[in-house]
């Protein structure tokens, strides 16, 4: 039996500009994420949904929208993800908007520090999510989680997990990026974040991209994947609040997931920004579950499980 898996729902869109990603966990369940993973000889426990404050839908205050609510949700996520890791299980966080990556990844980083393990984070997204209070055009905190995790953000968020910064930018590989604000772009270069944008993928191919992104993983490395569904091209995944044309095709995304699975190192997963209110007959949730199945070893006859 493979390492057991725990599903944790975080039904909030408190960090987003568009309402609706709060319904993401249920859409993934409707698309049978639990039974699909269980069909791969996985012990799957659905822990249900976390609870937190509702979305007040207010304008930004001092450059941040809904900071207190985002903090509360991320503390709940941190505690739930850390608890599953401590039980020896693999947490899968069902979002919700991508601000929740702060709680999820700070929990994984805390666990890795305590276990003396290295951490590698694959951030699959159309956006770098490296905005700050002064750079953000909107104040929406789902555009800031990577910056917060690297120590650049409000005290209420950067201190979740008890270590500032929670992670080093050197642990992150961003894949599929194609929408970055001007000031954010300068900050990404300044912090030396490793980004494989769509031009890189177009020129070098997904296989080469993933070989580099996964290079130097070893038995002591915990691999965390933060999968924003808008990573995918909008034709493949219309059900997201911030669609950006020109993302990876279905086949490129499948290759990406299969190469991650081949490492045998996947230790935790976020599935973020699925917005059923903008979807077509739950198509995007079904595509997401299909790709997650590949992350956990779905294989054609040509591939045997490593």
TrEMBL record:
<keyword id="KW-0479">Metal-binding</keyword>
<dbReference type="Pfam" id="PF00491">
    <property type="entry name" value="Arginase"/>
</dbReference>
<dbReference type="GO" id="GO:0030145">
    <property type="term" value="F:manganese ion binding"/>
</dbReference>
<keyword id="KW-0056">Arginine metabolism</keyword>
<dbReference type="GO" id="GO:0000050">
    <property type="term" value="P:urea cycle"/>
</dbReference>
<dbReference type="InterPro" id="IPR006035">
    <property type="entry name" value="Ureohydrolase"/>
</dbReference>
<dbReference type="GO" id="GO:0004053">
    <property type="term" value="F:arginase activity"/>
</dbReference>
<dbReference type="GO" id="GO:0005737">
    <property type="term" value="C:cytoplasm"/>
</dbReference>
<dbReference type="InterPro" id="IPR023696">
    <property type="entry name" value="Ureohydrolase_dom_sf"/>
</dbReference>
<comment type="pathway">
    <text>Nitrogen metabolism; urea cycle; L-ornithine and urea from L-arginine: step 1/1.</text>
</comment>
<dbReference type="GO" id="GO:0006525">
    <property type="term" value="P:arginine metabolic process"/>
</dbReference>
<feature type="binding site">
    <location>
        <position position="98"/>
    </location>
    <ligand>
        <name>Mn(2+)</name>
    </ligand>
</feature>
<keyword id="KW-0378">Hydrolase</keyword>
<feature type="binding site">
    <location>
        <position position="125"/>
    </location>
    <ligand>
        <name>Mn(2+)</name>
    </ligand>
</feature>
<comment type="similarity">
    <text>Belongs to the arginase family.</text>
</comment>
<dbReference type="InterPro" id="IPR020855">
    <property type="entry name" value="Ureohydrolase_Mn_BS"/>
</dbReference>
<feature type="binding site">
    <location>
        <position position="228"/>
    </location>
    <ligand>
        <name>Mn(2+)</name>
    </ligand>
</feature>
<keyword id="KW-0464">Manganese</keyword>
<feature type="binding site">
    <location>
        <position position="230"/>
    </location>
    <ligand>
        <name>Mn(2+)</name>
    </ligand>
</feature>
<feature type="binding site">
    <location>
        <position position="127"/>
    </location>
    <ligand>
        <name>Mn(2+)</name>
    </ligand>
</feature>
<feature type="binding site">
    <location>
        <position position="129"/>
    </location>
    <ligand>
        <name>Mn(2+)</name>
    </ligand>
</feature>
<protein>
    <recommendedName>
        <fullName>Arginase</fullName>
        <ecNumber>3.5.3.1</ecNumber>
    </recommendedName>
</protein>
<dbReference type="InterPro" id="IPR014033">
    <property type="entry name" value="Arginase"/>
</dbReference>
């Amino acid at each position: 039996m493979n390492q057991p898996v725990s599903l944790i729902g975080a039904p909030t869109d408190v960090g987003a500009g568009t309402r609706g990603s709060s319904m993401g966990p249920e859409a993934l369940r409707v698309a049978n994420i639990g039974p699909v993973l269980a069909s791969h000889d996985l012990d799957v426990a659905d822990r249900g949904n976390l609870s937190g404050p509702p979305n007040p839908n207010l304008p930004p205050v001092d450059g941040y929208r809904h900071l207190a609510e985002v903090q509360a949700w991320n503390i709940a996520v941190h505690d739930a993800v850390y608890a599953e890791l401590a039980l020896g299980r693999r947490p899968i966080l069902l979002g919700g908007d991508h601000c929740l990556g702060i709680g999820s990844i700070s929990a994984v980083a805390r666990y890795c520090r305590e276990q003396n393990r290295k951490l590698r984070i694959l951030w699959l997204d159309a956006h770098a999510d490296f905005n700050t209070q002064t750079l953000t055009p909107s104040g929406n905190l789902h555009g800031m989680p990577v910056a917060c995790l690297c120590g650049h953000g409000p005290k209420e968020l950067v201190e979740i997990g008890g270590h500032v910064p929670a992670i080093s930018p050197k642990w992150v590989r961003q894949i599929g990026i194609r929408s970055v604000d001007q000031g954010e772009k300068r900050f990404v270069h300044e912090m030396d974040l490793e980004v494989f944008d769509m031009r890189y993928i177009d020129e070098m191919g997904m296989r080469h991209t993933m070989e580099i992104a996964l290079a130097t993983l070893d038995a002591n490395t915990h691999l965390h994947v933060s999968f924003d569904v808008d990573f995918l091209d909008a034709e493949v995944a219309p059900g997201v609040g911030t669609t950006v044309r020109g993302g990876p095709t279905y086949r490129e995304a499948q290759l990406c997931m299969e190469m991650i699975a081949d490492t045998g190192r996947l230790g935790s997963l976020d599935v973020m920004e699925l917005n059923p209110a903008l979807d077509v007959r739950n198509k995007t949730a079904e595509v997401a579950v299909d790709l997650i199945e590949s992350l956990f070893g779905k294989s054609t006859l040509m591939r045997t499980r490593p």
